[in-house]
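Please think about what follows:
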Amino acid sequence: MGRDRRTTHARRLMWEERYSASNDYLFGTAPAAVLADNPWLALPGQSVLCVADGEGRNSVHLAQSGMAVTAFDLSQTAVGRTKALADNAGVAVQAHVAGWGDWDWSQQFDMVAAIFIQFADPALRARQFADMTRALRPGGRLLLHGYRPEQIGRGTGGPPFVENMYTEAMLHDAFAGWHIERCASYDRHQQAGSGHVGPAALIDFIARRPEASPPV
């Protein structure tokens, strides 16, 4: 088993343990703040890929808004809850059990939504950004939502590694030449299930891939 497969296996076990420890939705069923605060992101009829989607609170919200939603997560328990949440809401979400390296990134979407995926160190993050760019049609929209370095030590969510956090400067550099629609840093008290509770240092980054973007 290669290093990437060992890492994925360990991460899958970790998240399975976290999700299966309770019958409740770990992060609740309401969408993340970036979706609740920016309803203009959900364009009915357009396609969206929700990466590392967890239990489906964000993918189901986008489906309720009329988008054609595909999602994946490495936890079978989480994907099962996504399907149940979608069924209860009366919407369709194409939810798949898959690790990051298992996904077919050649499929293209109008939007890619990556919300709280900061399990990646800088090297892996660069690969993730390249993969998500491949999955966007030219002119498509990328949505990133996560934590800033100021989150470290708060104990209210996210990994304990400052190098995994986002900053505005880092995101501007990573997506130089893209049309940035929103880049905002802010603090907010979160109440997302039992997983994210308390004051959080958040960041939103929404940008469009250039129409003439070269192959990745």
Q: What stands out?
A: The CA atoms of residues 182 and 206 lie 5 Å apart. The longest strand covers residues 179-192. The chain has a mean pLDDT of 91.
